[in-house]
Structures are given as structure tokens and as C-alpha cells.
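Teaching assistant here, posting this on the class forum so everyone can see the example we discussed in section. The complex has four components, and the goal was to see what a joint structure prediction looks like when all of them are supplied at once.
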Amino acid sequence: MTPLEAARARLERHIDAQGMKHTRQRVQILEAFMRGRHVSVEELLRDVQNEAPGTGAATVYRTLKLFVEAGIAHERNFGDGQARYEPAVEDEHHDHLICTDCGTIFEFEEPEIETRQSQVAEAHGLSLRSHRHEIYGTCNRREACPRWPRS
Amino acid sequence: MTPLEAARARLERHIDAQGMKHTRQRVQILEAFMRGRHVSVEELLRDVQNEAPGTGAATVYRTLKLFVEAGIAHERNFGDGQARYEPAVEDEHHDHLICTDCGTIFEFEEPEIETRQSQVAEAHGLSLRSHRHEIYGTCNRREACPRWPRS
DNA sequence: ATGAATGCAAATAGTTTGCACCTAA
DNA sequence: TTAGGTGCAAACTATTTGCATTCAT
């Protein structure tokens, strides 16, 4: 089962469970969404409208919320003032590194940090719900980074 | 030297260095700002206008940016859609825990997490610039938490 | 048939900006 | 005197919402 198939299955299940309707737009948006990695609404809307002109921005916003509720998307906010969404892989978690020069987004996973984090929450008497951990830096990669001046 | 005095000194220095002007508003906003802990612009504006009616919102926004540039404030974003600012204490760093029920903000410092974080950045070939680490949870404190139902 | 989903446009919320007036230096 | 600062209102950006229309069931 491909990630897209898995996501589609989860979405169908969620839609049925909530007594919602299966629509052309929801499938189209899902397909475009699953092709991306950390897409902004703007980017996604552009992609969708390429194949399905006439799709409204409001629908994309509403559908992304639906994806989050269905557990197939995570909302991210990297401080550029717009939300980004990424496909959620079941039982998988990672945080992000962002190059402030070129905008490249890397992912990382640090069990030790996660552990410490739980301890911190506990020490403060909080029941951990979620977290957000982003590292910002510059990627020092002339070739890869679009903002590095080419000689 | 109190924190306020220290901040004022740094601000004056910055203002002089940049050839800017010392104004009544900047001092008033600084004083109100240093009284708070993680104030939103809205809250700060209200405080300032209590003592200095007529102060404009734009001035508060502009002044907070100035504070950040002068190194006496940090901008924070806890996902409630508005920026918050907190006094920067020199050579001190902490991250945050936020109670999603009552909004209480706790601070924490975990050298081990910081260390791992640097290693992660390095492993990905990034020069670490900054980071953001927030833990969200619920504080389980009937008495302290305004959103807990009183019996 | 009928209620939910869509698309558009208008509304919102936080923040920024243009500009005439004011004020520190 | 005069550049920089302030206050107001208008502009902006991302997102949400109201509503008439369309579509899945």
C-alpha cells in the first residue's frame, strides 16, 4: 500500500465515520498534497488549480483542516507567516531544521531529546500534549542553496 | 543595577549607536514592557495607554521591533496567532512549556537538549543560528488553572 | 430530495505602512 | 532647523465565514 493509498483509506474512513461526503475536490487535494513535503496552502492551491481549475482557496483551507482531523496531515509553522502541511506517517515523528538562507527543510529525530522533554513536562506538573522543536541555521552548501552566490 | 536599568542602558546605547532619538514613548513602553513576562502587543498597548493615553499601536509595534534589535527583547510565538515579547536577560536562555488549558507559560532550561541540538545541526551541515522549542500540555492544577471547573 | 460541500466575496485579526504633524537634538 | 518619531487611518496577508449554488447520497 503506497502512502497515498494509505492516506486515502484513512480519509475515507474518517469521512464515513463523520457522515461526511466523498467529493472530487477532496480526492484531488489529497493527491496533490501527498505529492508534496511541507507545502504552504498557496503552493498546494496552485498545484490543485493546475489540474482542477476553479477550485477555491477556502476549500483547500477547509480540506487541510479535515486532513489534520483525519490524522493524515500535520500543520507546521516555520515563522514565515504561513502554515505548512505535511503528510503524517503513522507512528512516526520528527522535528525540523530550517535553513534560513534557502528555506530548505530537513527532518530529524532524537529520542534522547524526546525523553528529556517528557521529563521536563513531568517536572513542571504538565501532561505532555504536543511539542514543537525547530532548529534554524544556514546550510553552507553553495551548490544546493539557491541563495548562495554562484561564482 | 535592576533589570529595568540594564535594559534602559542597553536601549540608550543602541539608540545612540544608530543615531536614533530618545523619546518619551520609548521609555514608557520599556517600563511597561519590563513589568511583564510574556506580553502580547495587545496587553502591552493596554498597559501603556493606561499611563500614556494617546499612544498609538503602531508605535508599540515599532518599538518592540526596536527592542529586539537592541537585544533587550525576544519575540515568541505560541501558536495563538499573536506575537509575544519577553525581556531578554543577557547570556541567559530558556525554552517554554505552555498549558493549553489556561495559557500559563513556564520556562525551562535543558543543557542536554541544547547540546544534542547543536549536534543535530552539525550532523546536517547547518550552522546553528537559533531554535525554538515549546512543550504543550495541561497543567492539572485545579487551583492555579483558571479553566479548571471549581467545584 | 436534502443536507453537506463548494466557490465566491466579504469579514477578520494581527501587523505594517504612508503620510501629515510633532519633537528631540 | 531638521531628520527622525508618532499617531492615525488605510493597506496588507493569511485565514475564516456567510451565503447562494451545486452535488453526493
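For the discussion questions: The two ends of chain A are 46 Å apart (CA to CA). The CA atoms of residues 114 and 126 of chain A lie 15 Å apart. Think about how each of these relates to the inputs above.
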